[in-house]
Amino acid sequence: MSQRLFIKHLFSCVAPQFKHGAAFLTYRRNQISHCISYFCTNINNFNKAVVPQQPVDLLMQNLRSASDTTDILYNIQQHHAIMNNAHIMQALQTVFQLQKSQQSTMSNGELLHSDSFQLLCKILQNKVRYIELNDHLTALKVLSFIGVPTNSKVIQILLQLVTKQVNDLTLQQIVFLDFILKDFISCPLVDALKIALPIVFEAHFRLQRDGCDIKQLAEFFVFAIKRRLSEKCIDSFVGIINENKNELDIESSKIIVRTLCEAKRTETPYRILLHQCLDTIVDNIHRFTFHDLNNILSRLASNKRTSSHFYHEEFLNVCANYVIDRQCDSEQATWILRNCNKFRHMHKRLLDYICERIAENPSCFDKWATGMIVTFINGLSISDYRPDNFHIYENCIADNLLKFTNKLELPWLRICLDLCVLDCWSHELCNIVLGQDFLGHFLKRGNLEDSSELIQLYQALVTLCPSYQGNLPSPNLIEELVTKVQNIEDSKDRSPLLPALAHGLGGPSYVYSQVYTKLGHFIDHAVVMRKGGYSVSINNNMEDDAKNSIFVENITLPEDSQIILIIYITPKCYTINTERIEGHVRLNMNTLEAMGYSVVHVMQGVWENLLDNEKIPYLMQALQNKCQNQEDIAATRT
């Protein structure tokens, strides 16, 4: 019963009561009571408006539920005459989803050349002026993904409409459109948009940035860096993200780290942001795969020459521990080690882990790529660490390296030098590398690093390996390289130890600075100490008065005295996290001692932490201790 019929029936029950007697009134009263009861029970149904049922949009349903692109094309072919804007956009979105997820039986090329898709593009072209700006961007995305040419009519119309509305774009739409345009070939409309988008973005960001979440801020920051927006704009994003650092999530952190690595920015706010993102990654390390971590670490390590700004000790440690805890294979372990080497970061557990796996199966080197072997011995050399089980497989290393001597692109001088650091003297390998033709290949590059490594290798073989009878660089070549290295060293800043040494020993005449050996060693300072630890004036005893050619061998020693060479160890000469002197530097000092000289080294980190009134006593004590040690050694020999 409808509400209208109910009310009519109610009044028909009430009206006749004035014409009849008491019995009839009782009857009517019962009828009214029944009607009121019925009304109370069905009142909700009465209140519902009777709405005519809307017709079902079967075309829309078919477009949404299509499981293959061919279904979409069939519906377009059959119903293109009745397709409206909503149908067009739904067809495009479903096609994009199916093609991107590779759930379609058609390739993008087949789709592009199909008549039905061409028909869809034509319908879009006719109705494009009546769809919204956001749908224009969606259509560009889909058509670009399918491979519709940039110079096609439908793309050009879409680009023209977007260009006219460019000032209405939100920051999110600007970033999205910029992403789409990267796949378009150059044309006037594309070029105009690429110029306009950064300008519009910078004009809008002050008004729209405050309501953005951290993910959006990360995307906007990437856009600002890649499109080289103004420093003020970029700094604003850095400041906002730093203020909301507690909201950083994994994905945003990954995006920001990648962008900062590409930008190579080293200012303090950028460094704070980078380390905050890496802290977030460290806290969520269990949610990363090995390849995610290695990718991030590789990006950081690619900037290691730019600044220590990109070094994050804890992140490197968790990457190394990740390999160990999950028992990754040797190849993955050496990938992490290679990036640790670039930072000069020592992780003893990682080195031991690789060594243990090798010791279990020394023949594994037969299956290792050359880069893995080079990375492994370089990691040991940087850390100046020869494992206890190294003797088990040291011959295997040298034998396997000999198989690859035809690969001239490898850093053979450094490889030989690393083996020398590990006390692994491969005469055969050194003989090949120091051959005239082989050596000429490296030196023709004019790389100063090659020259320095050759000098060090020569020093090591001559002083520490008297049994070596193979090829050596000619004396003329060594003299030429030493002169070249001297010119470089002379141009560097002088050691800061000189004032304290001169004051503590009795004056400048007791110290010589920037001294060399004829084998090519560079020494910061040389002093002469006689028995009892007393210093000797040496400036007037020099046989060579040329200030730029001071050789230790030319210093005349009084009776019962000895030369002490002082080397200032800068951070580039020791591991970044443990301040352990690198193997090459230790080998350099060993060769000096093998020539009969006493060596005292001073670490920059230690020196800079000393108070001014502590520096002179520190140096004098170091010299006294060295003198006493040498006297004790001489006494035991006699």
Helix content: 55-70%
Distance between the termini: 128 Å
Number of domains: 4
Question: Architecture of the largest domain in CATH?
Answer: Alpha Horseshoe
Strand content: 5-15%
CATH class of the largest domain: Mainly Alpha
The geometry reads as elongated
Radius of gyration: 40 Å
Structure, explained:
The protein has 638 residues and is mainly alpha-helical. It has four domains: 45 residues, no CATH class; 122 residues, no CATH class; 202 residues, Serine Threonine Protein Phosphatase 5, Tetratricopeptide repeat, CATH 1.25.40; 145 residues, no CATH class. Helices cover 61% and strands 5% of the residues. The chain contains 31 helices and five strands. Strands 1, 2, 3, 4 and 5 form a five-stranded mixed β-sheet that branches.
Please give a quick description of this structure:
By secondary structure, this protein is mainly alpha-helical. Helix content is 61%, strand content 5%.
